[in-house]
Design goal:
The chain has about 170 residues and is mainly alpha-helical. Helices cover about 55% and strands about 10% of the residues. It folds into two domains: about 80 residues; about 55 residues, no CATH class. The protein contains five helices and six strands, in the order αβββαβββααα. Helix 1 runs antiparallel to helix 3. The two termini are about 50 Å apart.
Length: about 170
Amino acid sequence: MKRRVNPLLLIGITGVSISGALFGMDYGRAIGGNPRIWWTPQEFALPLEQTADHFQLLIDGEPFAEHLARNSLTALGPEGLAYFVRPEMVRVRLNNWPQTQASLFHFAVYSAFGLGASLACLILGLIEFFQRPPGRRQMNSDRAERSLFLQQANPLKPDRATRPSAWRRG
């Protein structure tokens, strides 16, 4: 009465377990990651010119780089003295979380593909498992038919009444 587990069912169970765990980890890191830790380190802060394609800072509707070029920005030093802000003094730290999050989602797509294929194998394996009658039952019915055939009177094999020894006694 036992059913045999088919290969699709085994692939589905194993694949759903492995790729499901991988997808959960990748997707969880992409959604629940800490966006505050992905800033460029202060030692590697970039000059303003290298970050022009990432953002644009405006002061009174005018780009920040133009203010720096004409020396229209001043700052106060630690002693309280004013000085002009030069372009080489300005450094930019970027938050790299969007790029990191995109790469995590990229990995999550691959594991989601594996999860989908594994789920398809699991569903097909379950359908085949429950539609096919158990293998042992088929074998038992074949054996029963054979034994029934052998129990029927066989004209080639004499029974007790037709044996020569029974004739002599009788």
